[in-house]
Predict the 3D structure of the following.
Amino acid sequence: MSKIKKVGVCGAAGTMGAGIAIVAARAGFETVAYDLSADALEKAATQTAGFFDKSVARGKMSEVDRDAVLGRLTSTTDLEDLGDCDLVIEAVFEDLATKQGLLKQLDGICGERTIFASNTSTLSITEIASGCERQDRVVGLHFCLPAQLMKLIEVSPGINTSKETFHTAWVWTEATGQIPVETQDKPGFILNALLVPFNNDAIRAVEAGVAEPGDIDKAIKSGLGYKMGPLELIDLIGLDTQIRLGEAFYPITLDPRAAAPALLRRMVAAGDLGRKSGRGFFDYGNKAMFGG
Amino acid sequence: MTYTIVSNGDSGSFPTGDAFLSDASQDAEVVIYLAGAPLHADDGKTAILVELGTECLGVHTGEGGGENAGEEGSNILGFNRYRNGSDAPSNLIELVRQPRSSQTAIDAAKVLFETAGFEVALCSDQTGRIIDRLVRPKYNAALRFLDEGLASAKDMDLTCRMGLGYPDGPIERVCRGGLGHHYDVTQALFETNGTPGYAPARRAVVAKQRKTR
Ligand SMILES: NC(=O)c1ccc[n+]([C@@H]2O[C@H](COP(=O)([O-])OP(=O)(O)OC[C@H]3O[C@@H](n4cnc5c(N)ncnc54)[C@H](O)[C@@H]3O)[C@@H](O)[C@H]2O)c1
């Protein structure tokens, strides 16, 4: 049985935070969605309602259940409203100082029992925790994108995380119907530690003239049964984001495979960011989002 | 497109009984050399296709090492039907070209394999071609993570299946295909590229040493 009853989500108007709030509320937890802007929270709430409307339309959920879930989900721009949460999950910008600052603030607001969890992809749980007084009650809960659909959560203890905290967080992920896996507090945990260098290698293969992007993706999909080729995936992630991932990993791991390839930097400099700019390793016609 | 097969034994791409073998004919416009059968160059053929293992096509082509300062290429192409060691072969043919390979030969090879129901990815004559070059360093990393205690094999595999939608995880896959095979492929990649990501992981080295003891 989960000891957690009430969950707070910080950065809940963002891509991951909105999905995490859905996971918590859907599983029956009273959920408080916190972000900096009321407008952004309003937009996220509308999208969340739309998500559950679709679930009803597809017969996955009754109208009564939808209304109950939405009733459990409240929004706020006041951090004080997270004071009585048992678990606060932060999914704010991927920036150590921002995350440390937030946890420090929460430290003064939340009760003794509250566990803080971080959804960081690349930062250290131990370093994020080092900004607050309750380092034994900070744990990594790394959801996958889109959080409301993907079941996997990487659960990582920092150096000072207590066994009890880890266990409570683990039981909570199971109570939400997600699938937890345990990883050490290392850059990228499992998923990104394998994926980021692999994607860089695919870029280096293009750079080295091994094959055209289309042939590389075809080989990986057909030969290995992956749903998406690595270059198609990088176009979706964004080439600028792939640079940031490399920059987060390489200085810590010194793994040459993690370093952003020169071709990636050239493409970003040329404005080729992937799907969002209309062109990356593949051309997406006129679907560019520049300027709206 | 008709093809003749010259074979030196059991082929990794087309094991005994594979339908592709039975559709071959005599004296056809394309000749396919399997399982290391000695190659005879013949300009009169539309294409000559050599099944490759971990070696480059340059090992088989032409005189004096078969490479000519970036000008190499003829109607002789390399290929391999991708296979994860002892797993069943996939549906993917990696077709290997050299800088001056004949476009007619490339087009013919593509049509031939695609007509037989395969998918074809064209690549240059580099060690590991496309797939092994990309996935073997990842399997090395997963094997190293296992040694370092990042996570259990089960959790690493589950993460890749659930988090990335792969049909299987890196540890189960590399073990199923054979750690000895992984050693051979990564050793060839490491010999050519020299970067640590390609160096066979400890578990592959152990598997190889046990085999040769
Ligand atoms: N996008 C992904 O694929 C993905 C996957 C897994 C984990 N993550 C991690 O999740 C986190 C969020 O990523 P995202 O892609 O959702 O980002 P995002 O930019 O979509 O959302 C971040 C949200 O945090 C809010 N925010 C920033 N500072 C805040 C603060 N001090 N207090 C409250 N809210 C604040 C922003 O207003 C924004 O709404 C990052 O740590 C990221 O590494 C991202």
Observations:
- The domain at 191-269 of chain A is CATH 1.10.1040.10 (N-(1-d-carboxylethyl)-l-norvaline Dehydrogenase; domain 2).
- The pocket of nicotinamide-adenine-dinucleotide is lined by residues A 10-11, 13-17, 35-36, 40, 91-94, 98, 102, 119-121, 142-143, 145 (CB under 6 Å).
- Chain A is about 45% helix and 15% strand.
- Strands of chain A lie at 6-10, 30-34, 73-76, 87-90, 115-118, 138-143, 152-157, 179-182.
